[in-house]
Amino acid sequence: MKISIGILSFALLISCATKKADQSTLINPKNNPEGVKGSIVEGIDIQNNSSVIDKFSDADKIEKIMIFLASDELQGRDSGSEGIAKAADFIEGIFESNHVVPYFSSFKDTLSNFDKTAYNVVGFVEGNDKNLKNEFIVIGAHYDHIGILNPEGGDQIANGANDNASGTTTVLELARYFGNSKTNKRSLIFALFSAEEKGLLGSKHLANKLKERELSLYAMLNFEMVGVPLADKDYLMYVTGYEASNLAKISNTYINEKLIGFLPTAKKFNLFQRSDNYPFHLEFNVPSQTFCTFDFTNFDHYHKVSDENELMDFEHMAEVVNKMIPVLEGISNTATQEIKYN
């Protein structure tokens, strides 16, 4: 999410230094056959057992992904760097392990609007209904961050745990669910964007490319900074552009609780235009919004080297995944065009 330093100075406190994650626990993206992948609980019909969905993701699964994505090994995941290339390989491995196939000729789609070699990683789960599978839902997050900073000594790596390894992990867990369950009637594109930090370039590239191919987009759901809970709210997440569409209302209906609420600060700072949902809104004019739990009071480490895994709430992140599963199933399976701009 692109938030100016001036805006943040209005709301954020000075960050404190945190210790690095134990590098001995890092996941090797090429040689880790377990841990971050695996099929759904065998022998249970997920579509008819909500208790399985409630515990599909858990803190351990989330942590294993986050430990790698926010590790020093990736050097802050700056677009075009060796570190983010390792992240792309890691994402591709999770897709492959969970029956998510490339949407294009390969998972890695090279950006056409960035001066270094950078990739979106784009996977696909085809819808299972002949009447709906040609309508698409894009589920996205950016996996890049700002790389190496230059403070006077000490930590120099902006690991970007909350921004946006957290959103990336959420998308990967949702891809793991739908890649194995195949419960979606509409087709799902899982897109991890590069170069968001350079001006939403990855999402601009993909939105333009899909528009040129005349893709029928039903909705775009983006996940950004979901690593820590909202402070003193009676809802789990908010969506940017809350009043622009009925996405929040529909989401709450499918989960049968107040999952999504309205955050006035998000409207004040126009966060709707500051993340990867926005290019899809511009190209397709369908509900394209970002789900977030950063509320300007609960996290003061934005774009700092202190944005580390030690600050993340993995139980909270698992709850986000598990509660979004029935929401996405509802959105993907309802025959009528329920989601719309107001």
Automatic annotation (TrEMBL):
GO terms for biological process: proteolysis. This is M28 family peptidase. InterPro entries: M28_fam, Peptidase_M28. PROSITE patterns: PROKAR_LIPOPROTEIN (PS51257). Residues 120-319 form the Peptidase M28 domain. It comes from Costertonia aggregata. It comes from the Bacteria. GO terms for molecular function: metalloexopeptidase activity. PANTHER family: METALLOPEPTIDASE M28 FAMILY MEMBER, PEPTIDASE M28 DOMAIN-CONTAINING PROTEIN.
